[in-house]
Q: What sequence folds into this?
């Protein structure tokens, strides 16, 4: 297997960390993007892998994403971008630009990074973007006039909508941009990780019980994103939704081309 330069957002724990470890097994050059510098340093020290770099960035903040893109543009090339970072906010929270954080982190960072690094990805002979979505996208319908969930906000609803946005972005990518770069998304499964731990003690307690009973481990959840990022079997695949290494059907609304185009245009306005 050819050694690739792979960027993993949210790679210090959970599914992201499992992705990093699997990429290490394949001997790739890995660049982990994360908000917490302490976690980043702990990652470097614990894994002790020479081809691993940590870059600190709060991906919910537009100016930090812009600075990150400028930094990464100094690289010779990027072969794969795995957009994995995400969170659920039970209380409606906004970033420094007043944008609701679930939307900013779970969708806009994927969109912004992908377009900002497109030139580098095109320098690769096999540029790929992988968006970690979720089957939770089927739970709610998107209101194109309320992308930031200002009406009747609910943390779970906002999260589900953000995952639908990931899929709409994936399906739009090669329609909106003439590029050889491939873009796919996936449902990792219901995973036993630290996801959701930024919320209240009661919420963490409840979710952790469910995880213990029903969730798969992060190692299993990492198989599909790494496959889409590195496997020769996926080299010509783009605009698809995967689960457990197989292409799956997403929600009816996710195939609405007119809606996807509106989301694309509105997302462009946010990152200007």
A:
């Amino acid at each position: 297997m050819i050694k690739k330069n792979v960027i993993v957002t949210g790679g210090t724990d959970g599914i992201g960390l499992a992705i990093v470890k699997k990429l290490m097994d394949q001997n790739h050059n890995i660049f982990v993007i994360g908000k917490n510098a302490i976690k980043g340093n702990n990652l470097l020290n614990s894994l002790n892998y020479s081809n691993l770099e940590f870059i600190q960035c709060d991906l919910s903040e537009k100016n930090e994403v812009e600075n990150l893109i400028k930094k990464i543009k100094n690289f010779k090339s990027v072969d794969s971008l795995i957009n994995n970072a995400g969170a659920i906010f039970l209380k409606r929270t906004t970033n420094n630009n007043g944008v609701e954080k679930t939307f900013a982190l779970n969708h806009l960072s994927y969109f912004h990074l992908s377009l900002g690094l497109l030139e580098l990805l095109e320098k690769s002979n096999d540029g790929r973007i992988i968006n970690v979505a979720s089957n939770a996208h089927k739970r709610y319908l998107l209101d194109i006039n309320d992308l930031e969930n200002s009406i009747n906000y609910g943390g779970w609803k906002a999260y589900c909508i953000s995952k639908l946005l990931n899929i709409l972005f994936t399906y739009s990518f090669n329609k909106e941009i003439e590029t050889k770069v491939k873009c796919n998304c996936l449902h990792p499964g219901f995973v036993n990780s630290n996801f959701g731990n930024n919320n209240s003690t009661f919420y963490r307690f409840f979710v952790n019980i469910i995880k213990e009973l029903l969730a798969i481990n992060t190692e299993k959840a990492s198989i599909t994103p790494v496959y889409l990022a590195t496997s020769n079997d996926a080299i010509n695949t783009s605009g698809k939704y995967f689960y457990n290494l197989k292409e799956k059907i997403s929600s009816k609304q996710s195939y609405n081309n007119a809606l996807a185009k509106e989301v694309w245009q509105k997302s462009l306005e946010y990152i200007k």
